[in-house]
Amino acid sequence: MKLLIALQNCDNRIRDTEKKKDQCPIKMASLDEEVNKAELALGQAKEKLEAIKKERRQVERDIDDLEVKKKKSQAKLSTVSSNKEYRAALKEIEELDRAKGLLEDKALELMDQVEQFEQEIKLSTKELEALKKKTDEEKRTIKGEMGELDALLSTLIQERDEICRQIDRDLLSRYDMLRERRGGVAVSPVISGVCQTCHMGIPPQKFNELIRGDVLMSCPNCQRIIYWGEDEKLKAANESGEKES
Ligand SMILES: [Zn+2]
Fold it and tell me: How far separated are the first and last CA of the chain, in Å rounded?
């Protein structure tokens, strides 16, 4: 029975170690994703900045065009012959000034936006560098952990082999079958007449039999191999197994 308990402890530790190991690539992928997201956001901000700069250049060109038109209208002023034509030319200049004023406001607004975006991009670039550095460090740590978990796994598998060698073949295949079919748990303690894995009560007569510990017994509900969990000798075996993990 002690060997079975030790085997179950060993299997639990193998399962926990494998679970931890499986988490490692998931953690690494989520770190990579964080960096990718930040890179994408920075790329989008840079594109936006280019678009604003392009718009600003267009506005500047439009202002220059208006300036040329205004000069033409001003030249016209000196050549007009009637008052009516003179007023029309003045009105044209007025309109051009108004349009130019609007464009100049727009140009200023765009310049502010360029400055703002340039600041943001500068900050985001710094943040991205810091994030990359942090992520690289974290990934190195995870790789180290994976190596440790691999080493632990091979030790545990060796330990398991040694325990298995000491267990009767038929009992071992019963254990393996139960473990496979019962969610990885083949051996269960019974405390105060209750199976600690399926939480069902054991008939009192059976429980007394279990306390005597003469034969190997199964839980009538979940069929797992059971032992009396309050037995000091077995408790010690279980705890020493747990302490190692
Ligand atoms: Zn049970």
Answer: 20
